[in-house]
Amino acid sequence: MEQHSHGAGVPLQIRSERPKSTKVADFEPITIRDEQWRYLPVERLKGLEADALSEYLGDLQFEGGNSITTEWIGSDHALFGAAGTPEDRTSAASWESTDAAYLISVPAGPEEHAVLTVNSDDLTPSALHIVIESKLHAKGTVVIDHRGKGVLAENLEIVVGDESDLTVISIQDWKAGSVHTSAQFAKLGRNSHLKHVIVSFGGDTVRVTPSVSFSGPGAAVDLFGVYFADADQHLEHRPFVDHSQPNCTSRVTYKGALQGNKAHTVWVGDVLIRKEAEGTDTYELNRNLLLTDGARADSVPNLEIETGQIEGAGHASASGRFDDEHLFYLQARGINELEARRLVVKGFLNEIVQQIGIESIEDRLNKSIEEELKRSVK
Amino acid sequence: MATLEIKNLHVTVETEQGTKEILKGVDLVIRSGETHAIMGPNGSGKSTLAYSIAGHPKYTVTQGEILLDGENVLEMSVDERARAGVFLAMQYPVEIPGVSVSNFLRTAKTAIDGEAPALRGWIQEVRGAMDALKMDSTFTERNVNEGFSGGEKKRHEILQMELLKPKFAVLDETDSGLDVDALKIVSEGVNRVKAATGMGVLLITHYTRILNYIKPDFVHVFVAGKIAEEGGPELAERLEAEGYDRYVNA
């Protein structure tokens, strides 16, 4: 395991020992002295640090194919809590503040895709619980598209059925003033595959914690993330893969661009390979591109390995700068400044963007990137 | 027939010790089809001249003019100069994260021509130019200058020149760090582009070695920020024998 620096007073926490509970009272108040919250001052949460939250009452629009179904389920339903248990305070507060979850079911049959748009329009600290399940042999894509303005603590559970192949795309494209914490839990069944794509662009503060576990052997997970932080934005992603079953693979690939004063991104990637997870193959990577001065990217990969019987385990993390010399080089070839930045950013993020596989979303992202870049070119 | 005129050029740069004048009145006229060698000792301002023509923001022109067919180059942005037909082959090309060579070349070509090149012809043109420079075809998939060897960087510069077809090319110590084989390949590239397009060449070098492969029509000896002596190819031969001492100690 590679050593990474931890600040004074922030104890190094072994991931398997982190507390889990659906009760908010089981968690300490949020402080930057806690490893989980060390990059995020509590003031930025705008009320999500509270013990109780309002139930989300904003818009939920569902557009799906013929076979993907939706319904509200109560907290006593078998699928409520089937993919995971909260590991932090806002996730627990959201859990306790919701007595129903919005369930999206992907059945076996022809491959389809569906979009759930969470379109909030007020800044009341709110809680929302969504469950996505793919049934045995199912194949499909579910997009959760967060937009509008909101202050939302969300739990998103993803129950990936045996032998199924599910893609989940979570887009965070909030308006200014918004705060979003999203605890995303995925549990993968035997020989299943999950492609999970995080796209974070808009919102003052966005914190997504995707946490993957396995209920059977032979499963594979691909976690992708793409983000673009502007001045004063805080975008934080903490993917965690908990390998507890044999012969599973995980690939974690996150890329982000930053520009402007106090643009801040955080990536903490944890992978735990438990003793019983023999034959695990894992690799995690995070790359950041800083387009201007004044931006900051924190990137911390952690790998805990409890068995020697694995196929492979590795990680990489790097943050690079786009500077005046790059600009000069490209301009000296006739390329104007905006085009030069566009070339670099699109080239850099494309590896992730092309994973989305839905043209309308890719176009929207490319347009967002373009608009962000125009802002930075005088 | 195009003309690049440099008239009484004075250029300063900001240093920790304050503003420092590097170029102290440079006069030079280059016409299409001509090759001018600028030779001089380290620190004489040769590279500053190259960067000033291209418009690097670090250098400030305090006096004088650069004209391309009568147009004021100093009023143009860096990319406008390139589109007007000025090309600088850099001594230290920078790595550009996230941009593949193929994407970069196509974007540059589109910017220079004002329209995207027809795909099929373009791919053939790139492949042909790369073959001529003995570059592997997988090269285009790599990121610009990332992990390139010194020789690969210089070939990549010449490849761009070949594809972008400038009116004038400034080669800033393109020979530095090249072994004999690479020097030959790069020089042949310059000669080939010149023969095909009739471009003018400003060849900046410390050593006479490259002049065995690229024959200059004019040689200018550059000392302490200006041209100390001018002549034909025979001047290079004299420098080879005598070095720069005569000028530096004069």
Short note summarizing the structure:
The complex is a heterodimer of chains A (378) and B (250). With 378 residues, chain A is mainly β. Helices cover 13% and strands 46% of the residues of chain A.
Quick one: biggest sheet of chain A?
Answer: 18 strands, mixed
User: Could you state the oligomeric state of the chains shown?
Assistant: heterodimer
Order of helices and strands of chain A: EEEHEEEEEEEEEEEEEEEHHH
Overall geometry of chain B comes to globular
Structural classification of chain B = alpha/beta
- C-alpha geometry of chain A: globular
**Class by helix and strand content of chain A?**
mainly beta
Question: For the terminal residues of chain B, how far apart are their CA atoms?
Answer: 38 Å
> How much is the average pLDDT of chain A?
93
- Bin the strand percentage of chain B: 25-35%
Give unreliable regions of chain A as ranges. 1-9
Question: At the fourth CATH level, what is the homologous superfamily of chain B?
Answer: P-loop containing nucleotide triphosphate hydrolases
Number of strands of chain A: 18
| Spatial ordering of strands, largest sheet of chain B | 6-7-8-3-9-10
SS elements, strand count of chain B:
10
What are the key terms here?
A: 378 residues; mainly beta; 18-stranded mixed beta sheet; 4 helices; 13% helix; B: 250 residues; alpha/beta; Rossmann fold; six-stranded mixed beta sheet; four-stranded antiparallel beta sheet; 8 helices
